[in-house]
Amino acid sequence: MKCVTGRLELRSELSLVERSDTGFVPTMGALHKGHLSLVECARKECRVVVVSIFVNPAQFDDRNDLRNYPRMEDRDVELLKSAGADIVFIPSVEEVYPEPDTRLFDFGDRGRVMEGATRPGHFNGVAQVVSRLFDLINPGRAYFGKKDFQQIAIVKAMVSQLGYKVEIVGCDTVRDEDGLALSSRNLLLDTEHRAAAPMIYTALKEGVRLSRSESVEEIEKRVRQSVERSPLLKVIYFEIVDAATLQQVRSWDDATEIQGCIAVKAGNIRLIDNIQFR
Question: Is 256 exposed, middle or buried (0-12, 13-18, 19+ CB in 10 A)?
């Protein structure tokens, strides 16, 4: 496995690799089994697997969140070596953004709900960094976890807008034994909040079960109440949406595929998850 930090070295390493043979996994480090599952998916489908480790300042609306985001580069590199990555790209901010990126993206209603509504500028920062990394790596496929359900929709919209010839592959959410979706932010949870956090997925599963006999409005209410039975958890939003448009549905007949998406504050840590209803 080769570790590179500069654009020129990266281009040199990829100069003899066909775009169609290149799989890319973008990460912000603090890797866990969910990230490694993306590498595994890429390994099965691509001759060369590139993984980036870059904490992108442009997608943090909260400066404290950026400052506290976990960083463990040496450990991450060892994990990626064991997982079978071929190239790890660990750039500085100056390498990714040699000049300030002032681009503004408009993803329509998809970008104005849920994470877009509660984290202003977040998806613009995601689009900036992912497009910049696509420019540098030129992959045939890029792999993202379905835990970030809305983010995948935004990246697909960005790919369409900018005309990239890259396939966006969504990979299943990986969970801990107690059901909590794996996230680098889980490392920041104290003991009490970590013990409470699995209630999020428990409430989502119960919502799916009850949806066979109850309305969308009632399920949204029940899931919020179930999560907040713990005084350590506060729901930021829970919305049941059309999986294609990300707009809220009012009836189970409003869309062919329906997803429930949730964001929860566990103390000062923001956790997200989602589940398929239909």
Answer: exposed
